[in-house]
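User: For a teaching handout, I'd like to show students what a predicted protein-ligand complex looks like in token form. I'll give you the sequence and the SMILES for zinc ion. Please answer with just the structure.
Assistant: Understood, here is the input followed by the structure.
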Amino acid sequence: MTFIDSHVHLADPAFDADRVEVVERARAAGADALVCIGESLDAARRAGDLAARYPGFCHFTVGIHPHDAADFVEERDLAGIRAELARGAVAVGECGLDYHYDHSPRDRQRDAFAAQLAIAREHARPVVVHTREAEADTHAMLADAGRDGVRGVLHCFTGSRELARAALDVDWFVSFSGIVTFRKWADDDLVRLVPVDRLLVESDAPYLAPVPHRGRRSEPSFVPRTIERIAGIRDVPVQALAEATSTNARRLFGLA
Ligand SMILES: [Zn+2]
Ligand SMILES: [Zn+2]
């Protein structure tokens, strides 16, 4: 099968020892493209270097993760994000709200997220959104942004059907990771709820390796396991689902 990994932290130090091999294994497994997430300005710079090294295959994003929102300095960080967008970043993010870990105060998370939604709108780029146990605020903020024409994806989504519907209502996408292969996963209806033209898949590597690799470092070459699981849940051919999610990733991120 061919596929696009819509969310991989390939610039993460977890891949420093064997990044070239990880890319080779991704291609051998059928990857057409990887969207390398810059979850900080530093990570985005490194992800941008990967995009330059693998043109047309690696693409990159730039944003400030909600975990780091306490350190968000609007003037400095928006300038940094603008610089990476000018260098070719395909999206703003990952950004969003994480009230599970609460690594940053919630008001600071909302401020950083709002600023990044605004810069996405200004630059007409999609947003990659991380949301966990922050349903009401995520709903309100994405609905507002969506009405203003911002498009995006709820990545590694495990939230409520209501929040998924709110995203779909403003033409956003929903992405699933290896979590849907875990034995404890119990929301197949959520996977069925997302229309085929709004569905993305991702490794979120180095995290969340799908079964049967669970517990190991994840990598893009494992994404077919997640695609197979989603195809099984939705009772559709694996290849058709892989192609649809690739088309969707190309459309959202504006890939050639
Ligand atoms: Zn995330
Ligand atoms: Zn991520």
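For the handout, you might add this sentence: The pocket of zinc ion (ligand 2) is lined by residues 7, 9, 37, 39, 94, 204 (CB under 6 Å).
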